[in-house]
Amino acid sequence: MTERLSGHTELIGLMATPIRHSLSPTMHNEAFAKLGLDYAYLAFEVGTDQLENGIQAIRALGMRGSNISMPNKQVVTKYLDKLSPAAEMVGAVNTIVNDNGILTGHITDGTGFMRGLKQSDVSIIGEKMTICGAGGAATAICIQAALDGVKELSIFNRQDEFFKNAERTVALINEKTDCKATLYDLKDQESLRQQIAESVIFTNATGVGMKPLQDESLITDPTMLRKELVVADVVYVPSETKLLKLAKEQGCKTVNGLGMMLWQGAAAFEMWTGQEMPVEYIRELLFEK
After folding, report:
1. Rounded mean pLDDT of 143-155?
2. pLDDT in tens, 109-141
3. Does residue 114 share a domain with residue 49?
4. Are 141 and 100 within one domain?
5. Where does shikimate bind (predicted)?
6. Is 184 annotated as a binding residue?
7. Does 135 carry a binding-site annotation?
8. Could you tell me the residue range of the domain that residue 135 belongs to?
9. Pair 200, 279 in one domain
10. 265 is in an annotated binding site
11. Count: domains in the chain
12. Is the preceding peptide bond at 25 cis, omega within 30 degrees of 0?
């Protein structure tokens, strides 16, 4: 990378915690190098307590923008100047674009997830999905899935600070789309079993499965996972979470979070640079790693 850096290099960041495991710096920096673009992408360990300072740094340093990941996706909205229509609907941001000091928040997680499924030859249009999670990524996935034509969504989450967000998501989907959405308490394991049994896909859209929770799974009873079921996880490090390992043992088709990460990143890349990411080149590089 050093031979590419110059006095004109534009900086793009990634603010989240934990974040040192992320493949996003590799993805974007390799894409910049492939296209000969004078940009650099760095990961910053920033949690909600330092997020406001981090956003101020984007303006102060003249950064082109930043990605935002857990646990900052919803909190960050109050520090930005504008939100895209999708980000406003979701109530979360994963991409910031700096246009001459005006910071606009976007959300690309939902389109990334749906595109990732398509690349894995999985179609859920007109079908039912059961999903765990109510944070920024989960909300984006649910809303995009509903907009794309998923027939029914069963959303499970703990009774935590995100539960009210899930209630808002369900109301929004039922009001604005043709999809039927229902919210359940994750403690209701019998309902979880029943909804998974009626679904073509089960998705984990939480951080359970990645460090420091890499030895955990929201599904503890493998018999909930029949072999005809597709099991997806937004986590991509490790590439096979405990959930996906259990699903494979049951004969399920599995999809990890790498495709979602790749395609949501490609959307952000184009916003920052005005050019399309060389997706197939990056896909081969990431799968090799």
Report:
1. 96
2. 999 999 999 999 999 999 999 999 998 889 999
3. no
4. no
5. 22-24, 69, 94, 109, 236, 264
6. no
7. yes
8. 110-255
9. no
10. no
11. 2
12. no
